[in-house]
Structure formats: C-alpha cells, structure tokens
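pls design
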C-alpha cells in the first residue's frame, strides 16, 4: 500500500485550488480528477468532511464529480453578480461528507 495512505485518517480536509489545478492537467484530466477524489476519500475518516473551494467548477459540477464517495452537506455562500440575465458567483465552496465505507 502507498505510504501516504497507511497513516492516520483525517476528520476534515480542505481544498482551495488543488482540485482546480488537477482539473487543468493537459493529459487525461478526467482520470486525474477521479484519482484526486479517490485519494481524498482514502485520507478521510468515515463521515469525514471535505471543504472544497473552486473557481473553475459550479456547485452542480462539483456535486456530480464527488457523488461516488461523498454527499453534500452544506454550501459556503459567496457574493453574487448578474450578467446577461443570469446570477452567478466567481467562486463555489461546498462541504462534502464522506460516505461511510461500511
């Protein structure tokens, strides 16, 4: 087993840009995103929390990307703006809870 995953598990992990950077990989970004989700899942204790902030993904996209191992439990609100009749934000923050592996 990879030594990164052989140690303690965490109650909370935070991400402020790592997932965005992984997503911009020119070589197989979909696989790299899936690997990221898998690794964060392995680092967290059962029912552990992931707090992720993204400038590249919408809430709905993050919910889809993390749905295999996480459930959304909250969203951190950010200032909104309107353009072309639509309301949006430049940043999205979602709090996920790890689905128990039991």
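designed seq:
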């Amino acid at each position: 087993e990879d030594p990164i995953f052989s140690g303690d598990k965490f109650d909370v992990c935070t991400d402020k840009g790592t997932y965005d950077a992984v997503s911009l990989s020119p070589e197989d970004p979909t696989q790299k995103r899936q690997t990221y989700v898998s690794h964060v899942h392995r680092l967290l204790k059962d029912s552990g929390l992931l707090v992720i902030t993204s400038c590249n993904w919408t809430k709905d996209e993050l919910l889809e990307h993390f749905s295999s191992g996480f459930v959304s439990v909250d969203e951190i609100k950010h200032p909104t703006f309107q353009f072309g009749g639509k309301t949006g934000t430049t940043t999205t923050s979602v709090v996920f809870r790890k689905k128990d592996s039991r």
